[in-house]
Amino acid sequence: MAKRTLSPGALRRLCTEESRMKNDCKGCGFEASPSIVGGEKDYTQWDVYITGPGDSLYENCILHAILIFDYNYPLVPPKMKFVTEMFHPNIFKDGNVCISILHMASDDPTSYEKPDENWTPVQNIRTVVLSVISMLNEPNINSPANVDASKLFKNAYEEYCEKVKELMKAQKK
């Protein structure tokens, strides 16, 4: 497989974001940095570690995800995928995250997404991860990526909570 690359502008932007996050994201509930591949930083893929918010189903859990950046970032949004196994209405079974901020604005009149919720180049890693943290606690059940999780959340919330808690507990071992 060919190694992914970034445009010079994308690399510059990601280096700036890395530098800013060291100061701006203390206490934000997550850490993010370029993955280390072969002893070197790989700016095309970042490791994200989210500390489960208190009073949530993810309390005291560390959730690992990756952000994958396109050659044309920030003109194109990153993709986000959880490495930690998740059961959530807006996370596909393979871990890929479905949230408006990771989608380009669409001209589709049937789309439920508002253009101001979609990706724009002013968004950054911090805004994406904070949006995902918010989504963990407040799923959008009207646009599910995982229909089973959405149905359980909507129709049997206590059972949904138990399933998520059991999954998180099993991963701590």
UniProtKB/TrEMBL annotation:
Which residues carry out catalysis? C98 (glycyl thioester intermediate)
GO MF terms here are: ATP binding; transferase activity
PROSITE patterns documented for this protein:
UBC_1, UBC_2
Keyword set includes Lyase: no
Q: Which InterPro entries match?
A: Ub_conjugating_enzyme (IPR050113), UBC (IPR000608), UBQ-conjugating_AS (IPR023313), UBQ-conjugating_enzyme/RWD (IPR016135)
According to the entry, every stretch annotated as the UBC core domain falls at 9-173
The answer to whether keyword Disulfide bond applies is: no
What the entry lists under Gene3D superfamilies is as follows: Ubiquitin Conjugating Enzyme
What keywords are annotated for this sequence in UniProt? Answer: ATP-binding, Nucleotide-binding, Transferase, Ubl conjugation pathway
Pfam families on file? UQ_con (PF00179)
Fetch the SUPFAM superfamilies from UniProt. Answer: UBC-like (SSF54495)
The record's family statement is: Belongs to the ubiquitin-conjugating enzyme family.
> What PANTHER family does the database record attribute to this sequence?
UBIQUITIN-CONJUGATING ENZYME E2
Q: Name the chain's protein.
A: Ubiquitin-conjugating enzyme E2
